[in-house]
Amino acid sequence: MSREETLRWKAKIMYHAAVLRKELQLGEESIERQEFDQIISTTISGLLADLQDLFITTLKSLASAEQLEKWLPAALNYQILGCYCQTELGHGSFVKGILTTAVYDKSTDTIEINTPTITATKWWVGALGKFANHAVVFARLIIDGNDFGPHPFMVQLRDLDTHIPLPGIVVGDIGPKMGFNTTDNGYLRLHQVTIPRENMLSQHFSISRDGKYFPAPKPEVLYGAMLRTRAGIAIGCGYNLAKACTIATRYSAVRKQFQKNKDDPAETPVIEYLSQQYRVFPHIATAYGIIFTSRYIVDIMGRLEEDMSVLPEAHISSAGLKSLLSKISIEGIESCRLACGGHGYSEFSGLPSIFKTSVHLNTAEGENWLMTQQTSKFLLKLYNSNQPQSGYLSFMNKKELLKSKSRVTLPENWNEFEYLKEAYEYRAITLLNLVSENLQNNVLLKNMTQDQAWDDQLLNIFELSNSYCLYIVLMCFHEATESISDVEIYRPLRNLLNLYALYYIDQDLGNFTIDNYLDFDQANYVKEQLKAALAQVRKNAVLLVDGFGFSDHELKSALGRFDGDVYPALYKWARSSPLNKGDVFNGFHDYIKPMMNLNQAKL
Fold it and tell me: Mean pLDDT across the stretch 470-476?
């Protein structure tokens, strides 16, 4: 389908979903409503969530009680369709640098919004291009020439009856993308667009009639909705990776290549080869780890609803986990695609679609390298405070691990959680201490400015954030596993936990050999036990991916079918391709046949 046809199809699904939702009388914020929306969303990527969720979350986070009463019911019932306009053509992660202005006029009690330059154009906004009729627009609040920085404003974009853009508004779609083309990411320019003063979302800050500005107690509350979106991305990464693992593992059990045993003429399922296990199984473990970590993310975001004091923890967790989990999940999805050989390149495998739908998460809602800086900056602040820490930050208290040596003496020690945990704590506190000391030395001994010192450490800062977040996943994975009493379930998950822990040590041995924490033999023991963990996971690999619970409808994959009937499905899907509706394609008689006859000898 063309993009126009795709968006029309999307609109059709949205309409019928709304009709069904009304017929079922689902409450606006009921569990049943959430489950229904999730089912519908699996039909087409970016269907309901991209259109309204961030818009609604922003209203809940930033709108006053009166504003919520006015706009929230309409948004929940799709009477108004909204979007979140923050990113600009020339500004992304640096929100403080946005150029869109919102000037308060005391004489009319109104606010005039403008995008003064081409780089101020709002860009990449989901659902803006063709669907949304309202937007929360972030613009610099200016009162009497004083610039109070970015603030959120409710702006109507289109007429509710005709859908035609209102005066002063230029809006459209930014064009085709690498993936996610079912979402109409859009651009927006505003010229002298006037809104009432009451349209500034004012749960935390406000303007009086005479132009007095009342700031928020904590400026960070402005980004609460964005934190929740990043948290949602982190959670979604686990399910995207789980889909890819399901497809690759099921296909690996069906696909046969070569004879592993010379005495057995039968070809061997590729899942029996160590190289195939290494390309797929660690990502099964990672997917489980991410899904278990989602409990922590949901918990901290839930506490944020009631207690803004958890905002710093929510910020560093959502930023760091969004960065790490999108990175490793996308790497895992691509590894699963490659593990499926040539058929993995086919759209019928379902894997290219999963990859294209996921790959934008490396950049969306905060570029990954920038996110690690936010996490590391907060970790350094806590570490340098010399105050005792608790929870997942308690590794900072273990300064005795600095310059220590691993206590591993036997290969089997790497199957014990205390040794794995200690290794992850060592890496996190060693990198934290390294960055802290290097920043100080850069300033005091090398005469660098603070900014120069920070820029010099960006590679270590990236690794620091990732090491901390890998540790969070390890701990969440362990806590979830230890809560299981059924040994038939516990043992396969414990094997997965070992595989996760060993894989991400093996992937980063350089940071474990700083100060010789691991010697040559201990590093080799890691590799030895990693192979043993792969063998253990092989026993239950198919059952483990079946445990993710994806239906064939959700996977949309000929390779990942639950019944394993892969090759008939591939052939059937190929035969049903529109290109195969006739035996001779349209261009043959117009171009190919005349080309063949160009130099035909005359008889």
Answer: 97
